[in-house]
Structure formats: structure tokens, C-alpha cells
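Exercise 7b. C-alpha cells:
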């Protein structure tokens, strides 16, 4: 079984500039997930997909210099991540290297441990009919969620709002951590934005910090500091 980990880390992040190499816990952000991926011992290649020389240098300093840069036309903030993965896999194929399993790992998944990645890879390869996505239970059933309607809140399912929580439908959010895919299927995709059906790999909620804003980053720093005090 041949495996690749692909870590997307373009240089033009907008909401948190340079977030992929911004210092976190005393080292560049990207270093955390690189170390976790390497510690699994599962991957033949750990590839940082970047268009940015400084990010590539950080990856190289951690022992994972990219074999090639990301093409400029897929280094914007609109190209789907699966499109980037498929392009990357085809580039490796041109170089005579093919893979069975492709893991998408996010550069700011600070709290992911090697065992999480290894567990998800094992779960996927035991039943590769569907990709595996790291998720977290949001703690509120779908039927009890609120949506805004004309400036007011209404329940998503008024008929079941009074039902017991344990009798309702658990809801999950993308943990912003990782996904595990069949590499040949990614290579064959023509539209990386098409929705897929995933099997869940449920993470502890304290590992599922999807960092998109400065508030997310600040929360992650506080959580990291709290963990290091214990």
C-alpha cells in the first residue's frame, strides 16, 4: 500500500495572513502537522503543496522539501482542495510515482496527533468505498439548531424541538483537520468541488479547532497554553 500526505499551504491566505507559517507554540504553524504525519510512519511521501518560497523553505527545514511547487493557476482562494490534490497526484504520476491512499492534512490542525491520522487511514483502508473525513460532534442535534429568518430565530425542525436530545439526529462539523481519499479517484476527478459522501472519523472537540479567523487562532493559543500548564 503506497500512501501520500498532501498538506495545502499556499502563500496568499487572506483572513489570517501567512497563517501557514505563523509561529504557534514556538514553531511555524506548518511544522506541527508535518511532525504528526512523519510520526505515523505511514507515508511514502509527505508533500507540502505551496506556491510560496518561504513556506517551502519552512517545509524543507522540517525535512520535507516539496518536490515541486503548486501551479499558479490553482494557487488562488477559489480552487477546491480536491482539485489541488488531484493535480498533485498527476504531477507525481508524471514522475513515475503512484499512490493508493492520499491523506489531506491541514497546516493549522495543531492538536492532531499521529494516532488520529493513523486511525483514520486504517479505517479508510479497511473499507475504501467512501473517503473518511475528520469531524466533531457539535453537541446540538440538527432538530434543535436555529436559523435566522427575517431577523428572527426559528428552529430548524419545530415539530421535534421539544423531543429529547438523545432521540434526535447528531450533527457534525468538519474539523478542519484531515480527510483520507483513494488517490486514483482524486486523479480521475474533473470537478473537485462536487460534494462527496464521507464516512466520519469523530475527533474530540478539543482537537477540532478549524482555524479561519483571528478569533480561532487566539482560542487555539489559549487552549495550547492551558494544555501545557497541566
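Sequence design result:
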Amino acid at each position: 500500500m503506497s500512501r501520500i500526505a498532501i498538506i495545502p499551504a499556499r502563500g496568499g491566505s487572506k483572513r489570517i495572513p501567512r497563517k501557514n507559517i505563523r509561529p504557534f507554540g514556538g514553531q511555524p504553524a506548518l511544522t506541527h502537522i508535518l511532525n504528526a504525519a512523519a510520526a505515523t510512519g505511514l507515508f511514502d511521501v509527505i508533500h507540502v503543496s505551496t506556491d510560496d518560497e518561504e513556506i517551502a523553505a519552512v517545509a524543507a527545514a522540517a525535512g520535507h522539501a516539496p518536490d515541486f511547487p503548486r501551479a499558479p493557476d490553482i494557487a488562488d482562494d477559489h480552487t477546491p482542495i480536491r482539485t489541488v490534490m488531484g493535480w498533485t497526484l498527476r504531477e507525481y504520476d508524471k514522475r513515475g510515482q503512484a499512490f493508493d491512499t492520499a491523506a489531506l492534512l491541514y497546516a493549522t490542525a495543531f492538536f492532531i496527533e499521529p494516532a488520529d491520522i493513523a486511525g483514520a487511514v486504517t479505517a479508510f483502508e479497511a473499507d475504501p468505498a467512501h473517503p473518511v473525513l475528520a469531524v466533531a460532534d457539535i453537541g446540538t442535534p440538527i432538530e434543535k439548531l436555529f436559523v435566522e429568518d427575517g431577523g428572527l430565530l426559528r428552529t430548524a425542525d419545530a415539530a421535534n424541538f421539544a423531543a429529547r436530545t438523545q432521540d434526535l439526529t447528531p450533527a457534525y462539523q468538519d474539523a478542519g483537520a484531515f480527510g483520507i481519499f483513494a488517490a486514483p479517484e482524486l486523479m480521475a476527478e474533473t470537478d473537485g468541488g462536487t460534494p462527496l459522501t464521507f464516512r466520519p472519523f469523530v475527533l474530540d472537540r478539543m482537537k477540532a479547532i478549524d482555524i479561519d479567523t483571528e478569533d480561532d487562532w487566539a482560542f487555539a493559543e489559549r487552549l495550547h497554553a492551558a494544555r501545557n500548564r497541566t
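Instructor comment: The radius of gyration is 19 Å. The longest helix spans residues 214-229.
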